[in-house]
Automatic annotation (TrEMBL):
This is tRNA (cytosine(34)-C(5))-methyltransferase. Its EC number is 2.1.1.203. SUPFAM superfamilies: S-adenosyl-L-methionine-dependent methyltransferases. One of its GO terms (biological process) is tRNA methylation. The active site is at C286. Gene3D superfamilies: Vaccinia Virus protein VP39. The gene is NSUN2. It is an enzyme of class 2 (transferase). S-adenosyl-L-methionine binds at C149, A150, A151, P152, G153, S154, K155, D180, D207, D233. It catalyses: cytidine(50) in tRNA + S-adenosyl-L-methionine = 5-methylcytidine(50) in tRNA + S-adenosyl-L-homocysteine + H(+); cytidine(49) in tRNA + S-adenosyl-L-methionine = 5-methylcytidine(49) in tRNA + S-adenosyl-L-homocysteine + H(+); cytidine(34) in tRNA precursor + S-adenosyl-L-methionine = 5-methylcytidine(34) in tRNA precursor + S-adenosyl-L-homocysteine + H(+); cytidine(48) in tRNA + S-adenosyl-L-methionine = 5-methylcytidine(48) in tRNA + S-adenosyl-L-homocysteine + H(+).
Length: 732
């Protein structure tokens, strides 16, 4: 029971720099209103101060400033979704704490704005130091990226943004595989990634210290997938987050670091194994403790025997203040006992303290490691949290991957799969100290693994194009059972009507379409990049995929009545739009305002240009495109693509609420509220008009006849104007 309790405690501390806005402190709510909130926690920990003063991680004369900064609330920071480096006015630092932002009545509208824009994927509320590791990865659109401990996903979204640096390329060559050991946190990760609507992201659920080695098909040959970039943001004790996670003041002890060191080293080792030669891996923690920082890096460098080296990134983030990594440190137990090297540790402590926790004894070897190239960010230097980052470059294969394989009558694939047993510690749980320094490798060459995996696949009964969850005997996994990923076959009769209805370009990658069911009607169609399709088809037996792809089409509830049974989904419209050559209506900015603020505006409410384009179209899904007018600087100067529906006498949009609010804000409209029954959005332009919506008779309907489907939809109390509701019949 004690071990499980420790595991839960440590898991709650995983990467807390990205955690949700939570309560700052415990206890019952006080009488002090929004400013007070919770009883004040005493921000004192004598053991913490003694430990870090002894290690001298803070420059002489700055200790008082360091402690004062730790006792101040962490300022709120946010990042605007963009594809350039930060700052450059895309990351913003406020002088307000998160609690003030949430509770202050004067900031209520600003807070609502932040929540809405975050949901629509236009900003990310992310701690400043948390933005550093993805920037140091130096990602390019063709890179294959692994995020080993990704949840809750703010760094993952940065990586996705970097892949899509060129907005004119809907399918970058690269991709992000985002992993987390916690099944529930994987769904938080999916939610974060979905905001960016990328076909190049896959979320998987594995223990990062034994994440399976994947394979891909290259010109008909099976080859091991090595990643160009790996983000290794490991679970840590989190003492750099004291400014927002105030409980750390009470709970801090060196025991957390001692327990996590082995797990951190195994995760970093596994990452280094899967890194391509010439690739870059960033190791980061939100801990200031050298046991979790320099000790892990030094041990990894030592066991790599020259295959890895620390990169000098001192000039890559100009303006960032940081301290170089330290080369000497000591180990302290939770009761305050110090050890300077492994030889002085009594045998009774060997299960708690391991030799990899100490700096190398050989001065030449220590100097060659260049540990000073590590970056430690201290809170008082730039009013941030505490953080540690090290950038590793791989020069050649890890030494154990160069050795001749020893099969001993057991296939390489089988041996590799045995590592995936949950008996090993998972992220956030105390490590088994007896195994801390053992690397997670099989001693098997890459070629042997590829051949063994290919044989296993050829002998199996896998259906073509079906990527289901792994068999229970192969890998003991916990959490929800996922639906399979089924690629649409070339001869599937489902696709030709879609292709004809939307006049899809011949270059449309139809092979990348998938669904999540093998039986019955296909309700949703998703799309992935061809590189992720390759990964999915060649590794369905190895990995547990939680989610991948973006939704591009949804089946109409009464789709058989129309020429095409599938309508466009707003989530994937920017990916699909370059391939669509039909059913596109160009609209003006005034049209966009009407379409986003009224439930089912009749044709005559729209401009004559829009009506002339819509009147000859058959009923069904349409694309509404706004092109900026450079001659009118007061008009919105960025293009907008919306999914809509051409009904009998009206047009409506299928746009999620927060995305709709985003577009209205961009056009200078402040949303004041909603009249749900009438399907009208009140803005600062429409507030003066308080009359009821007109009871118009649409063309083709005589007085006294039952309402047309358009009118029925417009009067539906369950549909919000402009939203993309699940399960709602589109107007006909």
């Amino acid at each position: 029971m004690g071990r499980r309790s420790r595991g839960r405690r440590l898991q709650q501390q995983q990467r807390p720099e990205d955690a949700e806005d939570g309560a700052e402190g415990g206890g019952k709510r006080g009488e002090a209103g929004w400013e007070g909130g919770y009883p004040e926690i005493v921000k004192e920990n004598k053991l913490f101060e003694h430990y870090y003063q002894e290690l001298k991680i803070v420059p002489e004369g700055e200790w008082g400033q360091f402690m004062d900064a730790l006792r101040e609330p962490l300022p709120a920071t946010l990042r605007i979704t963009g594809y350039k480096r930060y700052p450059e006015e895309l990351a913003w630092h406020t002088n307000l704490s998160r609690k003030i932002l949430r509770k202050s009545p004067q900031l209520e509208k600003f807070h609502q704005f932040l929540v809405s824009e975050t949901e629509s994927g236009n900003i990310s509320r992310q701690e400043a130091v948390s933005m550093i590791p993805p920037l140091l990865l130096n990602v390019r659109p063709h890179h294959k990226i692994l995020d080993m401990c990704a949840a809750p996903g703010s760094k993952t979204t940065q990586l996705i943004e970097m892949l899509h640096a060129d907005m004119n390329v809907p399918f970058p060559e690269g991709f992000v595989i985002a992993n987390d050991v916690d099944n529930k946190r994987c769904y938080l990760l999916v939610h974060q990634a979905k905001r960016l609507s990328s076909p190049c992201i896959m979320v998987v659920n594995h223990d990062a210290s034994s994440i399976p080695r994947l394979q891909i098909d290259v010109d008909g040959r099976k080859e091991i997938l090595f990643y160009d970039r790996i983000l290794c943001d490991v679970p840590c004790s989190g003492d750099g987050t004291m400014r927002k996670n105030i409980d750390v003041w009470k709970k801090w002890t060196t025991l957390n670091s001692l327990q996590l060191h082995g797990l951190q080293l195994r995760i970093a080792t596994r990452g280094a194994e899967q890194l391509a030669a010439g690739g870059r891996m960033v190791y980061s923690t939100c801990s200031l403790n050298p046991i979790e920082d320099e000790a892990v890096i030094a041990s990894l460098l030592e066991k790599s025997e020259g295959a890895l080296e620390l990169a000098d990134v001192s000039d890559e983030l100009p303006g960032l203040k940081w301290m170089p990594g330290i080369t000497q440190w000591k180990v302290m137990t939770k009761d305050g006992q110090w050890f300077t090297d492994w030889d002085t540790v009594p045998h009774s402590r060997h299960t708690q303290i391991r030799p990899t926790m100490f700096p190398p004894k050989d001065p030449e070897k220590l100097q060659a490691m260049h540990l000073e190239r590590c970056l430690r960010i201290l809170p008082h230097h730039q009013n941030t949290g505490g953080f540690f980052v090290a950038v590793l470059v791989k020069k050649s294969s890890m030494p154990w991957n160069k050795r001749q394989p020893k099969l001993q009558g057991k296939s390489a694939e089988t041996r590799e799969s045995t590592q995936l047993s949950p008996a090993g510690p998972a992220e956030g749980k105390p490590a088994d100290p007896s195994k801390l320094e053992s690397p997670s490798f099989t001693g098997t060459g890459d070629t042997e693994i590829a051949h063994a995996a290919e044989d296993l696949e050829n002998n199996g009964n896998k259906k073509d194009g079906v990527c289901g969850p792994p068999p229970s005997k192969k890998m003991k996994l916990f959490g929800f059972k996922e639906d399979p990923f089924v690629f649409i076959p070339e001869d599937d009769p489902l696709f030709p009507p879609i292709e004809k209805f939307y006049a899809l370009a011949p270059s449309f990658p139809r092979m990348n379409l998938l669904t999540r069911t093998t039986e019955g009607k296909k309700r949703q169609l998703y799309m992935v990049s061809k590189e992720l399709r390759n990964v999915l088809l060649n590794n369905s037996e190895k990995m547990k995929v939680i989610n991948t792809g973006i939704k591009v089409w949804c089946r109409n509830n009464s789709g058989e009545e129309f020429d095409c049974a599938f309508r466009l989904a707003q989530e994937g419209i920017y990916t699909l739009y370059p391939f669509i050559n039909s059913r596109i209506i160009t609209v003006s900015m005034e049209d966009v305002k009407i379409l986003l603020t009224q439930e089912n505006p009749f044709f005559r409410k729209l401009s004559s240009e829009t009506y002339s384009q819509a009147k000859d179209l058959a009923k069904g899904s349409i694309v509404l495109k706004y092109e900026p007018d450079s001659a009118n600087p007061d008009a919105l100067q960025c293009p907008i693509v919306l999914c809509g529906w051409r009904g009998k006498a009206s047009i409506r949009t299928f746009v999620p609420k927060n995305e709709r609010l985003h577009y209205l804000r961009m056009m200078g409209l402040e949303v004041l509220g909603e009249k749900k029954k009438e399907g009208v959005i009140l803005t600062n332009e429409s507030a003066a008009s308080t009359g009821q919506p007109e009871n118009e008779v649409p063309e083709g309907q005589r007085a006294g006849e039952p309402n047309s489907p358009d009118a029925e939809e417009a009067n539906s109390p369950d549909v919000t104007a402009g939203c993309d509701p699940a399960g709602v019949h589109p107007p006909r």
